[in-house]
Amino acid sequence: MNNNNIRSEWIPSGYIKNGGHLNLKRCKDILLGVAIGDALGVPVEFKSREEISRQPVTDMIGYGTHNKPAGTFSDDSSLTFCLAEAIASGFSLEGTARNFINWRYDNYWTADNEVFDIGMTTQRAIDRMVKGTPPQHAGDFEEESNGNGSLMRILPLLVYIKDKPTVTRYDLIKQVSSMTHGHARSVIACFYYLEFALGLLDGEEKFVVYNRLQKDVAEYLRSINMSRDETSLFDRLLIDRIDMIPENQIRSSGYVLHTLEASIWCLLNTDNYKDAVLKAVNLGQDTDTTGAVTGGLAGLLYDHDSIPQQWLSQLARKDDIEDLAARMFKAVKS
Predict the structure, then answer these.
(1) Is the dihedral of CA 6, 17, 26, 288 positive or negative?
(2) What is the DSSP string of 249-261?
(3) Which of 87, 133, 163, 333 has the most crowded CB, counting CB atoms within 10 A?
(4) Cα 220 to chain center, whole Å?
């Protein structure tokens, strides 16, 4: 990438950013939206779409893949909460890194005092941070290291960057993604996801956001001379109508682009939180992450009050999560 000659005041054409309508409720929408989607997917993680189709997920269930009680969230939510804690404490990459390390080695922000799932790329990055590598350089930067491990945890950053210029938003997203996943593809995926979330935070209708981002994200990536080889990989989002693509052409592996596409597809093809996250989980494979990434956007779109109460009551550490949302909001509201 070449960031030369970029105007710091760059704003996407046709979009006047108003800073987002952030309140405590919206912070709960983010954290609970992610966690519920994650917990729904944990029991069926790694199962194929065909296998799940024989007994679709219709409710919050327990045990299964990881032998955990219903409502148990995974690394997706734990690392999301680690980032939220860093924001609540006055955001810094170093603080976020400490939280990641404490999660991995001291069970910080786990559902039941156990880390039971971690991606190899994230593990390598955390070990580099333990040894003193600066957080923004700790991740893998190779093309083959484009799993969904930064996308799954990035959503709380929205509350910190929402009032900042696009250039600053992109740079902060790049830094936070690069703590584990530094390749341009992962950064673009996180940028697109948070720009979509910002539109929802601002109260835009989901298809309005989708259509606007086809222009705005594409324009911004051109402005920083992003390789067309990279941007073309996002054509199903930036050029096509992804909501019109048949389900059998939507993939749900741990590859960051698959997760992003699947999540936007689920969001655009449903009209409530419950259906969005169930559609995501029933796609199979990386079910907890597809559920978490979809759930974060669906939480913003429909708010956490639309989440089935039974699911919320089953969620591990629900009171702690709501307290974290309150502390995160307090830290950024000024």
Answers:
(1) negative
(2) G---SSBHHHHHH
(3) 87
(4) 20
